[in-house]
Amino acid sequence: KYLETAVRAASFILDKMTKDGKLQRTYGKGHAKLDGYLDDYAYMVQCLLDLCAVDPSPRWYDKAVEFTKVILDNFIDERDGSFFYTSKDHESLITRTKSVYDGSTPSPTSVATFDLLRLARLSGSKDYEDRAGTIMKLYAPYFQRVPDQFSNMLCAMDFSLNAPLEIVLVADCSKDDWKEMFSTIHGAYLPNTVLLMKDTNSESLGESPLVRNRTAIGGKPTVYICREYACERPITDAAELKNRIAALAVKL
């Protein structure tokens, strides 16, 4: 029921709160209005990447790429590579501010940086990784001085410094035999991990090197566990997957 609620919420935003491919900030009386700010885009991309890990619909991945392009085209400060809080076509303001400090909620700058790093692993795009690296280097002098103000950015840096684990679950999602493997993967604490689901009934997500040429071996749900796109032997047995995930999981 939580997944169904998440899908409905994300679908509502995509269907009702976008205009000409761009996010709108508010919705009321059947209408969306006001151009989105950086936090709207950064958090929405984060949401879509999270959905990629738990739902096989290719829509989430495609929209995450689309909104990331909007961020890079409209919010980048070309002088230093950082992010403005408002887009370049926003209403005229005295100054374009930036939001970089992580407080009770992570800053849109750190969330967008983390998004770029996750998308770099999912898409294989070096450009995403380079742009995230530019931002982290820009604010690195503050990490030791005020680390509590950059907590989420430090998590992004940790992700970038440790070769992330890449996991793909390929299955015929019209059946139920993949759900045990799904629960095994998501029942473990696997930090610095990106995940994708691929439905064998869909041809989308083909641009991601993680799913390219990945098949459900023998028609069985198949899990690919990789680092730097170099994968271990595919796993089709649920018991074997439990043992492998247990070995990879961080014990709390």
Written description of the protein model:
By secondary structure, this protein is α+β, with helices and mostly antiparallel strands. It contains eight helices and seven strands. The protein has a four-stranded mixed sheet, with helices on one face. The longest helix is centred in the N-terminal third of the chain and has 16 residues.
Features of the shown structure:
252 residues, alpha+beta, four-stranded mixed sheet, 7 strands, globular
What kind of oligomer do you see? single chain
* Number of β-strand runs: 7
Widest sheet: strand ordering: 5-4-6-7
What share of the residues lie within helices? 40-55%
Largest sheet: 4 strands, mixed
Q: What is the succession of H and E elements?
A: HEEEHHHHHEHEEEH
